[in-house]
Structure formats: C-alpha cells, structure tokens
C-alpha cells in the first residue's frame, strides 16, 4: 500500500520538487501550505500552521479525503533571513515547527523529516569555520534570527525524540536551494569569489534536495539525526582548493580537495541515507 505523507510548504520551490519525487516513487503526498499546489491532481489543504489545532487536524483527518498519515515532511517556513522582520521570522518558524512536532506525536505519525539549514554551520562565515569542509560535527553557530530558530528547532527535536522512543526525527541542513532557472545567473559571480563566499560556494538542486527527503523517509532512523545536504560541487568554475587558498588561507583542511568538490561535507548523508546528487548546473 502506498504510504501517505503530509508535505508542509509543498507549494514552494523545494516543496514542488519533493512532491513530484515522492509521487514518482510510490508515495501519496498531501500538500499543506498557505496556497494550494499548482497541480490539481495533488491533494492540497490550506492551513495556518501557527495554530496547533489546524496543525493537528492536517495530521489526522480533513473531511473524508485522508484519514491516515504515515509520515510528515515539514518544509513550511519563512525561507531565509531578511525576508521578514527578525521577530516575525523567529516566531513564525519556531512556532510552526513546535506545533507540527507536537501534532505528529499526538497523531501517532512516527517519521518526521524537516528542513533545517546550512546557516547553522556559521553562515555567512564572518567568523571563519573551524575547519574545511564543514560538517555536522561541530556545535551550531547561528548568526541570524532565522538560523537561531533553526538551531532551537534542532534542540527541540533532540528532546522530543528522547521523550518519545521510537520516533524518527531527521533534520536536513539544506544548502541554498536552486533550480534550472537559477543557473543562468552563475556567470555573474565567477570573476569575484567573494560574492558567494558567504556559504562556501555551495548549493542544492531542488531535485537532489527531494531525493534527500525521500531517502530520509525511507531510512526513518529512530531518534534524532541531522545531515548536511548539498550538491557534490560548488557554483564556481575555479577549483575548490584554489578558492580556499585565496579566501580562507588560515583554515585547517581535513582532506585533499579534489576538483570542484563542495565544502559542505555530504559524507554522512551518503553513508547513512544513500544520498547521491544526480543533478546540477554544470
């Protein structure tokens, strides 16, 4: 039987790719967002997830269309710093995530995958990272209200997983989400490495982000886990080692940098989720 999954934020940039990928692999996604999904064949519910009652409803029953939810993919959020006031971003994102985690427990939804953020790695790296490539193994370094909320979401997940043995809560620290429409602008920053230094020249193609979500759902690792999710390369034509030597000459390098490899280490996602990027700009 196909498994039914609620995808919050499923009408957004990453969300649409996630929904398409899940449908292609036998899942039955139900989109929950502020606007309906553009594909009318996709069940879609408009809800205000800042309200715990509505968050609980979308994980239990909406009329007679769906009465059993097997998993939750939570992508709904103000998607970055500077898009709303600091307090609005913090309150909106943290409250929605709290409500959905709480609703999932109440509804008996045992698998939750949600969008955390590369910003927890220290972006925009005004304070340089402790080493390169960066990974999940050093403490979070939130530098904005947006990333502070993401940090608290991860902290909250640790405790909710502890309170509820058997629950799977997986945080995906997505890099800058891009798609084919964005790649034509990459020529603009090739001559000046400082323009994309802020996130170590990393990105995630929406289709590979969707793959990571699906792999996390399929693995359903019990407890709390976090993974950095990026494409395997950078957004630059220049080799990664050359970029690091120019922009981060004092930072320890933990391994030889080959070609255009990403500085957002995806080794853990490859090893534990079976994630392997398939798309990109080159």
TrEMBL record:
<feature type="domain" description="NAD-dependent epimerase/dehydratase">
    <location>
        <begin position="5"/>
        <end position="198"/>
    </location>
</feature>
<protein>
    <submittedName>
        <fullName>UDP-glucose 4-epimerase</fullName>
    </submittedName>
</protein>
<dbReference type="InterPro" id="IPR001509">
    <property type="entry name" value="Epimerase_deHydtase"/>
</dbReference>
<dbReference type="Pfam" id="PF01370">
    <property type="entry name" value="Epimerase"/>
</dbReference>
<dbReference type="InterPro" id="IPR050177">
    <property type="entry name" value="Lipid_A_modif_metabolic_enz"/>
</dbReference>
<dbReference type="InterPro" id="IPR036291">
    <property type="entry name" value="NAD(P)-bd_dom_sf"/>
</dbReference>
